[in-house]
User: Fold Alpha-L-arabinofuranosidase B arabinose-binding domain-containing protein from Rhizocola hellebori.
Amino acid sequence: MSRSIARMSALCTAIVVMVAGSTVLAQRAAVALDPFTGYLMAHFTGESANGEQIYLAHSTNGLTWTDLNNGGPVLTSAIGTRGVRDPALVRSPAGDRYWIVATDLRIASGTSWSDAANRGSTSLVVWESADLVNWSAPRLINVAAGIPGAGNAWAPEAIYNAATGDYVVYWATNSARNGVTKHRIWYVRTSDFRSFTAPQLFIERAGSQGVIDTQIIEVPNSLGGYRYYRASADGQITIEASNSILGSWTTLGNLSHLGISNGATGGNVVEGPMWAQFNGRDEWNLWLDQFATGRGYMPISSTNLGSTQNFRTRTDYSMGAGRKRHGSILSITAAEQSRVLARWGASTPVNRLQSYNFQDRYVRHVNFDVRIDPNVNPAQDAQFRLVPGLANSSGYVSIQSVNFPGYYLRQSGFDFVLAASDGTSGFAADATFRRVAGLADPGWSSFQSYSFPDRYIRHFNYLLRLDPITTAQGRSDATFRVTA
Assistant:
């Protein structure tokens, strides 16, 4: 009996230690994040040549947005379709890991919407980071491979599920089920965004009605009566609520009373619902992409998500210079904000590159070729930003176009083109240069190649080339003034 008592005592002690330990871990997770001071939006811009990549914008008040990275893409995909849309920005509960999950789709490549929906990629693209600024290479995750007849995988989202201690990743797939082909929302679970459970059906609307865009937000104090709320584009913008992510959901209504729909009842036709809570207060914005009119995102606000009647439209917002399409918003701490702005927040001056020996001519792009011309029209074709080098940011620069953000001067076979960064190390090397004292005049500048250090940018017959410089003529051709 005494031995049994001793064993029971030891077991109880172990349980107490385990419970205490788990409580400490829960408390640590709960207090790991400092107060939020800003907001970070991940988005894409549209079907332009470089629009289907990852762009970031920043706000201090949740309503006025500033484009980061001089309006250019922050991350680019060179895998899958070589384009990404609908990025979801995810933080771990402890704030020590981040992921971006996006649709693997590039309509700008000439893919039709029918092909993309029925014969498209069934994978999502994932990036991972430990600090929100240094990101892994993108990788493909084939989440829809287990769905019979899957035609695509679109508009992914992810949310941490405290009930199971892992993440629910959900997206839309077009496939046949019960004799009806349409988009439904499916989900998988993961703890590391590398291995996943088999896909399960998450949301299906009645009849032939499909659903593509849906996003869930957690309301920890259950204001309005529920812990989770989701908005879905299913002909309307339908608002639902639940106390369990994978449990049953209650329909609260839609936004038709505000003249807003996803097409079923006309009015302001929108998509891509995107939630964001105002930092420090019980008020939420639901951002809606006015794609039908091309006006981009607009917010509607609520201080109680328990009823759709509580939403109000607002006009006191600004989306910044660039167009913002379907994305997600993350509230960020002062430390996170400081890192993000230090990396991408500074606005690099706009410059021109004036030829030394033809001083009425400036470097410009035309049909993505690069040359020197006088009287450049439009003027932005001769405007560039000298940003930190893509291959080496210490002492090197890359020359980014102003009117084609994300496009850089790069050598290709020692000729120069204006090209969109594809995220590869080869592109980065070919678009990186050391700015040195001018070879013909030290008061001017010359640009030495990173990948071919014996060669410099020069013009020849007015066309830009990358050449070894051995003559006085060559030194003049390779000398430029960086002007405002």
Remarks:
- The mean pLDDT is 91.
- The helical segments are 2-31, 113-118, 334-344, 425-430, 472-477.
- The first helix runs from residue 2 to 31.
